[in-house]
Write a structure and sequence with these properties.
alpha+beta; SH3 type barrels; 5-stranded antiparallel sheet; 2 helices; 45% strand
Amino acid sequence: MNTHKIAVLETIIKNHLNKKLPQIVVGNSVKLGIKIKEGEKLRIQFYEGIIISKKNFGVNKTFTVRKILQGIGIERCFLEYSPKIDSILIKKSSKIRHSKLYYLRKNLRK
């Protein structure tokens, strides 16, 4: 019984890991296309910002994107293999030596 559940989970995980995504690195400026359902309609809303952290591994990979909107910093966490993410476009890549860019919370307030 338990082996059947494990086999089903493994097939689901393999299907999600086959999703083709660009290499996401901390410090990149990205433009994410997120699927949003409003009533019966499905539309794509874009979210632009800088990746400030990455966590976990496998299917549970998450990354945090920070953007400035009307002078206020907004952070949002996304699952890397989420079906709600339609597209990931890397606008700018930069070489960063830190694994977490939490210091941007203080520096980027404008």
